[in-house]
Amino acid sequence: MLVKIGNHPRDYDWGSKTLFADVLNIEATGREMAELWFGTHPISEAFEIESNSPLSTLIGKRLDFMAKFLAAEHPLSIQLHPNAAQAEAGFATENAAGLDLADASRIFRDDKAKREAIVAITEFEMLAGLRPADQVADVLDELAERVSEGSAALLASYGASLLGAEGHRGLFGAILDGDQPSAVQAVLLGELVALAQAPQEFRYVDAALLHLLTKRFGADRGLLLALAMQRFTLEPGEAMFVETGVPHCYLSGLGAEVMTSSDNVLRGGLTQKQVSTTEFVAMLDVAEALETSITVPRQLGGGLWRYDFATEDFVVHRISVSGSNMLIDFGLPGASILMCLSGELAVSNSLEERLVLRKGEAAYLSDDARYYSITGSGDGLLASATA
């Protein structure tokens, strides 16, 4: 089965009114277009363009992975995702409590782990993982020199938590202690906002990040979390894999995201939505977060690259074809979603099915056909299930 699929853009206030249209030729709606999902997750299921049939109806099952276009004009919340055991337990607990799936207080909307990877289409700015403890301690010490005595004492206590037995988890737990900031913490956050508004030269504090986040979110506890996280700039084609338990925050840019088919999100700050303070700290995976790094695809042959992500949940390939470079008769790892990032991709298979994708379009490719070929002139991203 080879079919062109589509969906309706999802509007979030951090989305962009222009990136989808300008880069992917997806018709603008006049609203903040943030995500366009290609998969079978019931919250926003893709459909066949020709028949308008839901993808799961067409293929007779739900996929374990999904792909999407994501456009960020403004920073998202700081968040992390649960592993399989955490998701199963959390989903069962909230079901037993009688919480509706649409209830805003829910944390777990399904029982699946959520691992994800973002591949940059334009330059893509993000926070992901954690900075080493000595670097975070330098940031806290430098801030302590610029704030009031009471705020400096609080920062010193954060430093003690960081250098204690629980390390980064102790730091995050101290910052997120309680449902709301304490009076002392509120003063510190207000002083960070003031620091960000005045020209400052720092050795260790990311002044540009502090300015960006305070302008958007004001005196939010997420500011302190963000300054303990790594900041990355992905160039087009580069990627970041985000393991469960790893805090991350997309800042700006257009990317293609591939993930397990889950919508479980725990937020730690920089949001008006529910912040899951206790659960966020408990599910933080410090070891994985400290190892976070950019992934560059490995070339397998002319016009074909593979991203070697540390997961068996999905496989991602980058494709580039032209008149002198075609991909002929290659096998899929499993059922796949192909997204066209530029130009045109002509896709055919051994069952004599054929379609043409233009930039911003996507197709479902079943693994019933033994071989696929892609010709034309363009670039694409192929997200696949694993056998």
List keywords for this structure.
about 375 residues; 21 strands; alpha+beta; nine-stranded antiparallel β-sheet; Jelly Rolls; elongated; about 35% strand; single chain; 3 domains; ten-stranded antiparallel β-sheet
List the helices and strands and how they pair.
Blueprint: E1 2-6, E2 10-16, H1 19-24, E3 33-38, E4 47-48, H2 55-59, E5 65-72, E6 78-80, H3 84-96, E7 116-120, E8 124-130, H4 133-144, H5 149-162, H6 167-175, H7 183-197, H8 207-217, H9 222-226, E9 229-234, E10 239-242, E11 248-260, E12 266-269, H10 277-283, H11 286-290, E13 294-295, E14 298-301, E15 304-307, E16 315-321, E17 327-330, E18 336-349, E19 354-358, E20 362-365, E21 372-384
Antiparallel strand pairs: 1-4, 1-20, 2-3, 3-5, 5-11, 6-12, 7-10, 7-11, 8-9, 8-11, 10-13, 14-15, 15-16, 16-21, 17-21, 18-19, 18-20, 18-21
Characterization of the model:
The structure is a single chain. This protein is α+β, with helices and mostly antiparallel strands and 387 residues long. The chain has 3 domains: 8-128 and 232-275 and 290-295, Jelly Rolls (Sandwich), CATH 2.60.120.10; 132-227, no CATH class; 298-384, Sandwich (Jelly Rolls), CATH 2.60.120. Helices cover 26% and strands 33% of the residues. Strands 1, 4, 14, 15, 16, 17, 18, 19, 20 and 21 form a 10-stranded antiparallel sheet that branches. Strands 2, 3, 5, 7, 8, 9, 10, 11 and 13 form a 9-stranded antiparallel sheet that branches. β14 (298-301) and β15 (304-307) form a beta hairpin. It starts with a strand and ends with a strand. 45% of the residues are buried. The mean pLDDT is 96.
